[in-house]
Amino acid sequence: MPELPEVETIRRQLTERIPGRRLDRLDVADPLITAPELPEALAARIMGQVIERVDRRGKYLLLRLDEGDTLALHLRMTGRLHWRPGTPADGEERFLRALFTLDDGSTLTFGDQRRFGRMWVVPAGTDERAYWRGRVGIEPLAAGFTTDHLARVLTGRRVGIKAALLNQALVAGIGNMYADEALFRAGIHPEESAGEVDRARIKRLHRGIRDTLRTAIREGGASIDTYRDGLGNQGQMQEQLRVHRHRDDPCPTCGTTIVKTTVAQRGTYWCPRCQPRP
Ligand SMILES: [Zn+2]
Q1: Is residue 158 part of a domain?
Q2: Are residues 118 and 155 in the same domain?
Q3: Residue 79 has pLDDT above 90, yes or no
Q4: At 122, which CATH number?
Q5: Ligand 1 centroid to 244 CA: how many Å?
Q6: Residues 41 and 77 in one domain
Q7: According to the model, what pLDDT value does residue 226 have?
Q8: Is residue 152 part of a domain?
Q9: Which listed residue, of 54, 110, 202, 225, carries a Cα 20 to 30 Å from 9's Cα?
Q10: Å from CA of 171 to ligand 1 middle
């Protein structure tokens, strides 16, 4: 599932290619992709607008358009965005849901095997701070994300620390894979109560989150499942994962066998020695 580093990788690639281009045409193969809005209504609103900028908020990709509207795209489980200099050949994009044609003939396809991915318009004039509040928390790579901030959002929380990290309203963009990696780096058991993690380990967790996400961006994201970047290529971060998807492998730090258990309804990988139960 694409998390912050994967979406950021796509954002950077699109930023080099689509700003200044006009949205000329939208072909929707699966109307679910714009639900609950009809594809025709979405197209009528944004066709003809020029893409000014590509932003990201958490796992959401945001195309800023010149009339002030924003096209938000959420890849969810298996969504893929793929830019090509021309039109894809028939069948080239399996699971094609929507195809944008830009005014230079280049295309952006939204493919999605599981069909959970969505796109919608955030209309011009929307107060975005209010719009995202309660839905997406602080960006973990932003300057404002400090150890203090992380300590504050965890204070008093009785849910497990992994569940807290997966809560997008607390910290944006961290999913199952990078939560496992950050907790391993911090030496914190995934089920420890979020509010009980002491200051020294919150500091390690803060660093673990940032190091993991930055490494993942540098590696172009992780292609452990269906993820491909904005040009259809695999990322390399899967080679750098220390515990996630490493059940029964030796811990890279201590050699203990890595285990997989279910935490927060998600398959969770951790080292019993480096991340002892409190
Ligand atoms: Zn270990």
Answers
A1: yes
A2: no
A3: yes
A4: 3.20.190.10
A5: 13
A6: yes
A7: 86
A8: yes
A9: 202
A10: 26
Residue 89 lies in a domain: yes
- Rounded CA separation 242/251 (Å): 7
CATH of the domain at 186: 1.10.8.50
- Which one of 106, 132, 158 terminates a domain? 132
Confidence of residue 70 (pLDDT cuts 50, 70, 90): very high
Ligand 1 centroid, distance to 184 Cα (angstroms)? 8
Pair 3, 59: CB distance under 8 Å: yes
Residues annotated as part of the active site: 2-3, 59, 266
Q: Are 81 and 33 in contact (CB under 8 A)?
A: no
Residues 118 and 153 in one domain: no
Please give the distance, rounded to the nearest whole angstrom, from the Cα atom of residue 260 to the centre of ligand 1.
13
247 pLDDT band, cuts 50/70/90, is: very high
Amino acid in the structure at residue 67: E
Q: Which residues, by Cβ under 5 Å, contact ligand 1, an ion?
A: 251, 253-254, 256, 271, 273-274
- Residue 191 lies in domain: 147-240
Greater confidence (7 vs 134) lies with: 7
Residue with tokens 């318009």: 121
- Alpha carbon distance 130, 107 (integer Å): 32
Q: Given the structure tokens 């793929």, which residue do they identify?
A: 82
Residue 275 identity (one-letter amino acid) = Q
Enumerate residues 6+ apart whose C-beta is below 8 A from 129. none
What pLDDT, on a 0 to 100 scale, did the predictor assign at position 1? 86
pLDDT at residue number 225: 83
pLDDT more than 90, % of the chain: 96
User: Domain total for the chain?
Assistant: 2
- Cα distance between residue 100 and residue 27, in whole Å: 7
pLDDT score of 91: 87
